[in-house]
Amino acid sequence: MPRIVLLNGSPSTRSSTEALLIHVADDLRMHGYNTTLMNLRSLPAEALLLARTDQPQLAAALTEVQAADALVVGTPVYQASYSGLLKTFCDVLPVGVLRGVPVLPLLTGGSDGHILALDHGLKPLLSTLGATSIAAGRFINSAHISAGAGVISPGAAAEVSGATAGFLTELDRHLTAPVRVPVG
Ligand SMILES: Cc1cc2nc3c(=O)[nH]c(=O)nc-3n(C[C@H](O)[C@H](O)[C@H](O)COP(=O)(O)O)c2cc1C
């Protein structure tokens, strides 16, 4: 069964982004996909910052991402962009790792004024990792998420399920695409 890895780039233990990703993971499992939620805050900080990719926990995380059929990348908006935690992890991923891998970008933030962090921050980051199939994604204001209770508002749930539907359409197309055999 195809596996989707969901990355949470928040350093917070009571994370709105994590609550949102858990909601998305539940939805993806209902559509028949395996899911793995990876909280990047659980990775050893020194290995991440010093790019020690042979550190066992970090190596295992990198292998898991490389083996994924698709990714959901969630991050809080920090200073009008993605979190530093997400960036440190992306910095140790191999070049071109997301080529041909459908990706759904999701942001949570406190100010709707920073909605452009999706198109001007997170999507370009994913593109530099080789992503060619980036779903529309969403910015969800954290006022619509109760991190402690793990509840998101009906409006936010509708928003994010619209994004998930587009992502799954692309993933299905990707998984059923005929393998091209080079001629000659
Ligand atoms: C250090 C820091 C910087 C932040 N910067 C912004 C910002 O520039 N724009 C914004 O909309 N929200 C900003 N926020 C609010 C968070 O993006 C928002 O609360 C988010 O949902 C937190 O997600 P989390 O609970 O998963 O960490 C910031 C929060 C922190 C702690």
UniProtKB/TrEMBL annotation:
Keywords recorded for this protein, A-Z: Flavoprotein, FMN, Oxidoreductase
Pfam families attached to this UniProt entry: FMN_red (PF03358)
Gene3D superfamilies: 3.40.50.360
Residues in NADPH-dependent FMN reductase-like domain copies: 2-140
Protein's name in the database: NAD(P)H-dependent oxidoreductase
Taxon lineage: Bacteria, Bacillati, Actinomycetota, Actinomycetes, Micrococcales
